[in-house]
Amino acid sequence: MAWRATPAEVKAAPRGSDRKPLMKGRIQSGTTVGLLGYLDGEPVAWVSIAPRETYRDFGGPEAEPAQKTWSLACMYVHRKYRGQGLGNQLIEAATAYARKRGGTVLEAYPVDPKSPSYRFMGFVPAFERLGFTEIGTAGSRRHVMRLDL
Asked: Which DSSP state fits 111?
């Protein structure tokens, strides 16, 4: 919810407060918020994937006006299943999802593997392996990477 909350929502529900109703409201209104990954019927992973305009500004280069840019904002894999390739599968599923819904560009904001923060946004090498190209930076740690769909 961190990249989705509007300034008014942040003020009304400060960090640490329950923002679940905000996310639930977005889902109920039909706003795309992401995908869940299941293993043997149990949810074990999550990826936040949606049109860029449904998020706050991530920073970095502006999107081209003619492009339909989707953003992969964050990922999570249950600790027990990390290191098994599920992160790559999440990125691939997010790519297919954005493409199927008319996206022409997928943007992600990963960090270097040794970064002390923003690790939930993924790591640069994983995105590079899947064909993303770095087009700039956002802040001091996040790389802006894009993939033409």
From this structure: B
> Model confidence over 86-133: pLDDT tens digits?
999 999 999 999 999 999 999 999 999 999 998 999 999 999 999 999
Asked if 74 contacts 90 with a C-beta cutoff of 8 angstroms, the reply is no
- Residue 111: partners with Cβ closer than 8 Å, 6 or more residues away: 117, 118, 119, 121, 122, 123, 124, 141, 142, 143
- Residue 46 belongs to domain spanning: 32-148
CA distance 70 to 138: 16
So what's the pLDDT on residue 47? Answer: 95
- The answer on 70 and 55 residing in a single domain is yes
Q: pTM score, two decimals?
A: 0.86
Task: Tell me: do 24 and 45 sit in the same domain.
Answer: no
Same domain membership, residue 24 and residue 92: no
Examine the domain organization and report whether 48 and 115 are in the same domain. Answer: yes
